[in-house]
Structure prediction request, 394 residues.
Amino acid sequence: MIQHRLLMPSIILLSALAMASCVGGSKGGAEEKEGEVLPDDVVELRADQIKMANIEMGAVENRTLNGTLKVNGVVSVAPQNLATVCMPMGGFVKSTSLIPGCAVRKGQVLATLENQEFVDVQQQYLEAKSKYEFAENDYKRHNDLYKDDVYSKQNVQQVTADYKSLKAQVKALEQKLGLIGINPSKLHAENISRSVPVLSPISGFVKTVNVNIGKYVAPSDVLFEIVNGDKLFLELTLFEKDADKVSVGQKIHFFINNETEQHEGVIYQTGKSVNADKTYKVYASVTKRCKNVIPGMYVNAVIDASSSNVAALPSDAIVSFDDKDYIFVFDRNKTEKGKPVTEYRMVEVHKGVASGGFTEVTLPEKFDVKTAKVVVKGAYNLLSAKKNAGEMSC
Prediction:
């Protein structure tokens, strides 16, 4: 805003001078040929207008810039730090005391479920275990007798098959008990229970609660979602043209919810492909624990980007028009109505990092850096002259 206010006096004088020149030169204008039509990307000024607009020329320089990139993104959590809690056998909710936002630790009881199937599987395990212990002893005894030629090979084979079958049955039931949170080594006939606890697989805070007392939950139902906020990361979105300006190890600063508190992070991975909308993903870890940063939040981030030996121009040489960036370059000198006139051509560029009053620019392929003369001061006055071409030309 300050820059535009400073430019207003020169723009007003420039327009006034142009109009005065047109009025003064209108005498006998009917006898002169109609003025030429300028291309859309060209603006022309007389010598007095160039002086009033403070036009200064320069060249594209090669500079090493250490600047910043402003990007947007969201806070995410790694898959290993997000747990979805279900119960493989389902059941009725007997008790729970959690609400969203509660802190939990790994192994803490989240809820207690009841189901007749819990009783059945415990019974089946204890019965199979008892039979297996008998079959194991019988198997050893028959093998000893077979060695002494007391039993036939066929009898030993039958006992061995029964023994192995029961062993597989016991192992399978042990795994089934483990799925519902029952330790087989501590199970015996006196502690068979119709209810089992639902334990938290990780430490963190409760994100979602989908249960209430008395509700029946199926094996596929999600009971709780637990999030560990200790290891959050940022998923940042960059434009394709900035992909080469970031690398692993670069530091970032980010803000959430328009807060003034600054948080820190480090880029640990960059995307390996460009999306259909020409954006590029970068991932950064949050280096310090931030109590008010939670998954799903929108963030504004600043990346400490660096470039080496890039094409750069003074930042004042680059102007914005219709959401694009341009520079003005000298095109040619000519004579119009007996007066010297200079033409300047608008060239679209893409901006990169900025530092120390200079900005990195990506130039068109056929742009001749060695011979091009660029307007490094007064570019905004030229843009105003272009917008008011009807007033600026005679």
